[in-house]
Amino acid sequence: MTKTKVLVVMGVSGTGKTTVGKLLSEQLGYPFFDGDDFHPEENINKMASGKPLNDDDRKGWLLKLNQLALQQHNVGAVITCSALKKAYRSLLRAGMGSDMQFIYLNGSFDLVKSRLENRKDHFMPIALLKTQFEALEPPSKAIAVSIAQQPDQIVQEVLKQLK
Length: 163
Ligand SMILES: Nc1ncnc2c1ncn2[C@@H]1O[C@H](COP(=O)(O)OP(=O)(O)OP(=O)(O)O)[C@@H](O)[C@H]1O
Ligand SMILES: O=C(O)[C@H](O)[C@@H](O)[C@H](O)[C@H](O)CO
Description:
It holds the Pfam family SKI. Its EC number is 2.7.1.12. By secondary structure, this protein is α/β, with parallel strands linked by helices. It has seven helices and five strands. It has helices at 17-28, 41-48, 55-71, 86-93, 109-118, 129-135, 151-162, and strands at residues 6-10, 32-34, 77-80, 100-106, 143-146.
């Protein structure tokens, strides 16, 4: 990959953003940032109580992640963020020109559900997965990769498309 990029690994909860993002960060030598760490506590509490976030809940969070991307503009970064809607991705990429690249982890409802059922100790209730898919507007200009393969295979596919 020639130019430094800020990569945003996106997709519904449970698609493997954190898993794949950390591996990508190691391969590229870019710092890793988990987007969930930038949620205000009330957002985490809202999701943990079984209520989905709405556009207003997400706006401040997305603006914080855009600020992070701008700070990392010249050094690169791998950031995980569900980035479910087109409007969210526009907020995230503001000021980044062509230096932000979305990596879309794509999987069926049943596959993602099975992944969440096997995951322990996470605040996100499986019951919210349906609302994640309902909100999802798949990106048209992202590097899209199927999650129906091992994490390292996903990473190799992403690296190939980044070149
Ligand atoms: N390619 C894969 N194959 C099998 N299991 C996977 C794969 N990717 C991730 N997992 C597992 O699926 C679960 C969800 O992964 P992860 O937490 O990385 O998803 P996420 O998109 O970051 O979720 P969230 O948005 O809720 O934080 C974890 O238990 C993880 O170990
Ligand atoms: O956009 C959203 O509804 C939220 O950001 C969720 O996607 C969480 O961030 C995460 O995916 C769950 O852990």
